[in-house]
Design a protein that fits this description.
The protein is of the alpha+beta class and about 375 residues long. The protein has 2 domains: about 10-55 and about 245-380, Trigger factor, domain 2 (Orthogonal Bundle), CATH 1.10.3120; about 90-190, Chitinase A, domain 3 (Roll). It has 13 helices and 10 strands. A hairpin with a 4-residue loop joins strand 5 and strand 6. Helix 8 crosses helix 10 (about 290-315). The longest helix is centred in the middle third of the chain and has 35 residues, at about 210-245. It is extended and about 80 Å long. The protein starts with 7 loop residues before the first helix and ends in a 6-residue tail after the last strand.
Length: about 375
Amino acid sequence: MKNRFVAFALAVVMVFSVTACGKSEADNSNTDSKKEATKQQAEIEYDVDELVTLGDYKGIEVTLEGEYDYTDEGFDAYVADTVASANIYVEDNSAKEIKEDSIVNVDYVGSQDGVAFDGGSAEDQTLDIAGNCAAGTEQGYIDGFTLGLVGHKVGEEVAYDVTFPESYGNADLAGQTVVFTFQVNYIAKAISSVDDLTDDIVSDKLGYDTVDEYIDSLKEAYNSKLENNLKSDTETAVLNALINNSKISEVPEGLLQARLDLILEMQDRQYKAYGTTLKDYITSMGYDYDEEVAKIKANVEESTKTELILEAVAKAENIQVDDSDYKEFVTKIYTQMGYSDETSFYDDFSVDGYSGERYFKLAYITEKATDFCVDNAVVNYTNKVAE
């Protein structure tokens, strides 16, 4: 099960859980001078009781309007949506000639001056003629790539010129006219209903032996979805109520700056891995760097307010870090993010005045505080199925 980060952890940590994966050893390391500067910087201190006036956090009453109980009607709709969005295409034996709106399965080879070029060949490709893209996706091709197939028949070999745009990323092909040769394997049709599924189709396209096995897997996924939706919606409703019940006198500037520094440093580290910087990237996209940082800071301020409220709940309920439980909590996080040990992980999340270890121990505490509020909430449902 995925780790739940609340408040500032949701706003910051999960942003980097994707970009941090697969980083180089250089990305994982900090210079000794930065580490030393962080050690020498005075720790940011504040009294959360002076900043937060807690409202009711026990017995918070919320009403949820979603659908959280299994029903046959709900499951049937889930199956229909899943099948329709699965982009399953099978041979349409009744169609023999390619039309402007056809879906076609082909093999193709791209060649320049009679020689196949790298990356220009593929087999068993399903093309959307009208969309000039891979069927069921937005993966578009260069202009004219599929249009020349219109009017041809299944089994034919078709060759025609296609010109790459001047701005094409490969300099060897930019602006060049090449020949694409297609072997038309079959015209396809989309499977849009569960009634169209067969054991052969689910075996070939979905990796299940039978339709019944596939439907059973969807039932398990549907029940899991209902459970996750209930958990997520309950937590969101309770947190919103808690925030509305409480007051923040101020967000300490040092704390806010630390949160902002962390975001900017993590982002900058990722862009430097690609030979640029966050500032240069934002500027290259036509945005004002200072204005964008101000927007980020405003969002961080809101998430930090939630962090402070939850920290106040934790203090009021004497919620402490349990060493063994925390070890499991943080290990799951850093391994998912591509780190092999706590030390390098904490180093990368340390900024002036606020260490990475302190950051994640607070994330742990605020998660436990959220659990406490949710566990003690009164939850009403507008769509509860009668038992």
